[in-house]
Automatic annotation (TrEMBL):
One Pfam family here: Glyco_hydro_76
Protein source organism: Candidatus Cryptobacteroides faecipullorum
GO process annotations (BP): carbohydrate metabolic process
Record keyword Cytoplasm present: no
Keyword list, A-Z: Hydrolase
Protein's recorded name: Glycoside hydrolase family 76 protein
Length: 396
């Protein structure tokens, strides 16, 4: 059963922001969660996707992940896989937090995967520690290390996160014709580019380090990074976050990766400072994803290739939008709209976007409306959709 429903936003907060106050989409009514065939046990669904991710893509004695489910077919491609390791491990952490009291044996197994992942430095191809030419790659690793510390209390994870940030991330802040900003990469030809993908996660790293150390320098860093991002790549009239700035010129359209990290850092800054300007900017960025980066209520794919970084991007938006939707200190109508939007995506993804008949050989597509059928299955869309399914266990 499909219904067209109209979801009202937090009009009081957004009416003066130049953002469309109404989201229209051909959507499953989220109340159908209580009706056949959409009666979904999200915990059971999450257990299924966690097992599928681990069984099909993880090297279990190393805690790291292959790009495809047949690593012998292309070992070279799997070797250069780094930044996605963070997001795959984040799904394992999601599962660990969900089951650690109800299934301690499986939780212990997942905690060991975290230990091995750290021991093998997340399959970093650049050296014995977590440093990497690409700033955003390191930032995602740092964020996952902090989550591992938060989940397990192992201080070493936080120590490595802090050291990587202090020595190899914030040191890439430069002032040039682009203003400030963290460079995308130190590789020749790329060091001139200041990207949303390096500055959004950079602000998040600083905020999470502030959360667990209470060192004010990290809050100052976060404000500095965010202010550059907000004043250059963010468009307040729409909520869109452009991709990059190089040679003083802004280029590239909005991507769910950038919308998610922008709203995530804005939301955390609001949490730590109480400044509602940050909250409004977070809500605008979320609204832009729902209104302008989705079709019939489903987030756009942003790629036509499963073996693509872009096929992981939607999960990044989901992770930080979930935190926004769960924050009881903000407008309830907006939170419901955002939660319903993600729930609609999850219902479609779980009921239409995957063939579950061959479990545990089940694979998600970059298009959440259609099962993936190619011979080689890739972990980027698997991680993105698994993040979505895990998020449902928190939203419902």
């Amino acid at each position: 059963m499909k219904k067209t429903i109209i979801l009202l936003t937090a009009a009081a907060a957004l009416a003066s922001c130049g953002v469309d106050d109404i989201y229209y989409g051909e959507m499953y009514d989220p109340s159908s969660l209580t009706e056949a065939p959409y009666l979904i046990d999200w915990d059971a669904a999450a257990d299924s996707v966690d097992v599928a991710l681990i069984d099909n893509f993880m090297v279990k004695d190393e805690g790291i992940f292959w790009i495809n489910n047949d690593p012998a077919s292309d070992p070279g491609a799997n070797w250069v896989n780094y930044w996605g390791q963070a997001h795959a491990m984040d799904v394992v952490i999601d599962a660990y937090l969900r089951i650690k009291d109800s299934d301690p044996d499986r939780a212990a197994e997942y905690e060991n995967y975290m230990r091995l992942w750290h021991q093998n430095r997340a399959n970093n191809y650049s050296g014995p520690d977590y440093r990497n030419d690409f700033t955003d790659d390191m930032e995602w690793i740092v964020l996952t290390l902090i989550r591992m510390y938060e989940a397990t209390g192992v201080e070493e994870y936080l120590d490595y996160a802090r050291d990587t940030y202090d020595q190899h991330i914030i040191t890439r802040w430069t002032v040039d014709e682009n203003g400030g900003g963290l460079i995308w990469s130190i590789e020749s030809g790329r060091a001139i580019s200041k990207n949303a993908c390096s500055n959004g996660p950079g602000a998040l790293c600083a905020l999470r380090l502030y959360e667990f150390t209470q060192d004010e320098k990290y809050l100052d860093d976060a404000k500095m990074i965010y202010e550059w991002l907000s004043s250059t790549l963010y468009t307040p009239e729409t909520g869109a976050v452009a991709d990059n700035m190089a040679n003083g010129v802004i280029a590239g359209g909005a991507l769910s990766y950038n919308q998610g990290t922008f709203l995530g850092s804005a939301h955390m800054l609001y949490t730590f400072t109480g400044d509602r300007r940050y909250l409004i900017e977070a809500m605008r960025a979320a609204e832009y994803q729902m209104t302008s980066m989705s079709t019939d209520g489903i987030m756009n794919s942003e790629t036509s290739n499963a073996n693509s970084d872009n096929s992981l991007f939607k999960g990044i938006f989901i992770r930080y939008a979930t935190l926004l939707a769960l924050d009881e200190n903000i407008d309830a109508d907006f939170r419901k709209e955002l939660s319903d939007f993600m729930t609609h995506n999850a219902i479609v993804c779980w009921t239409e976007g995957i063939d579950k008949s061959t479990y545990p050989q089940i694979f998600f597509n970059y298009d959440w409306t259609t099962p993936y059928t190619d011979y080689y299955k890739y972990y980027q869309p698997q991680v993105s959709a698994s993040t979505l399914i895990e998020a449902m266990t928190r939203l419902h």
